[in-house]
Structures are given as structure tokens and as C-alpha cells.
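QA checklist item 7 of 12: single-chain prediction sanity check.
[x] sequence parsed
[x] length recorded as 325
[x] structure emitted
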Amino acid sequence: MKIDEIGEFGLIGRIAAAFRPLIPTGWEGIGDDCAVIPWSDDRSMVVTTDLLIENVHFLRDRISAYDLGYKDLAVNLSDVAAMGATPAATFLSLGLPADGVGVEWCDRFFEGYRSFGVPLLGGDTTVSPQGIVVNVTVLGIAENDRIKRRNGAEAGDLIVVTGPLGDSAAGLQALLADLPTTPEIAALIEAHHRPRPHLAEGEWLGREADVHALMDVSDGVASDLGHILRASGVGAEIDTASLPISDRLRKTATEQGWKPLKLALTGGEDYVLLGTVAPVRFEELQARFTARFGRPLAVIGRCVAGPAEIRYDGKPLDFSGFKHF
């Protein structure tokens, strides 16, 4: 059987099953945005790692060294945010082609990587026979009762996101199409190259008992929400009119003939947080979130009893986000 026949998550499932018996009691492995390792009586360490490969995750001639360093760390910090944790340290392994990447490029890469002020404690460097390869590992710390996972969603929960959807995917389309750099397109490209991990929002949501499940949006809501539903054993109804789509995306989509709804649901790499919240005290939680962050949580749907399926405006639609293999 070939990997493309079982897909990325089929492969992950096989790996998880093989190693599950080796995980120590109290440790949590594959299945959430981060692994969870007991640290003290009341705190745990969360650990995440990501691999980024040239021409798969980024195009070297379309992204600056600074932005690549920034983004490589940002996407990992987003995983820590999704657990309600605070980043503590990072490790970086870097494979570089011997020709075509100079010392100045490396200096700018690390300038971008330093943007978040999280220490780099070590890693590895090696020559790459073809293209740049980056692997980042981030360690975070969280109080045990504030760690959020994917498996806590309940029927009746409101489904929320912490920011607009589709901007990053639109920025990538603009890059690939070599569109003229209008102010709107420049902002979309920046959203793709410099996504902001919602660390403060994740820590805030981690303190709220009414927030039942949380993860970040890396592959698109259509795919990522499915992870929460399968882990929690519930379904979802999405109100597509409630999806937070920025004015710059709507304007550019109209001009270019794009479908903003599809970009918002399937584009991925927005790195906002996606969660489920109990409805009973939501207005009070919403008011406090808005006072703290200057914008409300966007309610995009509701969890429902039933199979782990998503219905859009009451209908099943063939939406799916990015898939490896």
C-alpha cells in the first residue's frame, strides 16, 4: 500500500498505534496540537514540532529570509497557543544547500526567527542536497487545569474563531498569480508570510472553563474542525454567512473572480484559534474577550449530537482543506 492511499492522517494513525504502548502513564502523545509531559504537581510542558520544506511549504524566490524565519517559528508558536500554554524555548534544525544561500541570508533568517523573543536553545545544521529544510521544536509551559485539547467539545457548544479566515490563502494565490501589489494584496501577502500566532488569546481562553476544545487553523476550518469533531464525538453546523472574512479579501476576491467562502474554509495557514464554547455564559465571556482584545470572538456555528460530520447552512458540502500526499 502506498502512502498516498492512506493519506497523512492514515499514516499518523499507524504510527500512533505502534507507539501508544510505550507512552508513560500521564503523558499525552499524538492527537493534539502539542504533546503534554508532566512538569510539576500543577504544571505540564507542552511540545510541538514542525517540518517545513522548500517548494512544499514555501517558495524561496517568493519569501524573504526574514519572513521565512518569522513564519517558521510562528506556525509552531500557534500550536502552543492552541493548548492555552506559554512558549518557553525553541530548538531549530536547518538543512541548507551549499550554494545559493549565503551568510547574509542566514543572518536575516535569524532576525525574523528572533521576532517573538523566545530563546533558541540548540538544534542542528547540515547540508541539504536540494532545497532548504527547516525543523522547529517549541517547548511551552501551562498550568494543568488550563490546558485545552481537541476532545472536549460538547453538543450545543458554540464554534468560534479568534480572527479572519482566508487571508493567508488569498495571499498565496496573489503571489502565485504575480498580481499587482495593491494595498489589499500587500496586506494579504503579509498575512501569508507573517501570520500572527494568537498566543495572548490562547492563554486567555485557556483560563476559561467554558472553553471546551481548542486548536489552531493550519489546514483550513473544513479540515481542522473535523479533528475536534472526531476527537469529541460530535457533529457541527456551520453558518457560512457568519465566517469572518476581511474586507480586503472580499474586495480582492471580487476583482479576481475568487470564491472567498472556499478560501475561508479550505485555504489554511491563518493560524487563528478555533474552539468550542459553552453557550450558557457566552455573552459575558464575549464581552470580556472583546474588552481584552478589541474584537469579538466570531461565532461560526454550533456543535450538534450525531456523527462527526460538518453541515454548511444545513447541507453537506464537499469542502476539505490542505492534504499532504
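[x] summary fact logged: The mean pLDDT is 94.
[ ] second reviewer sign-off
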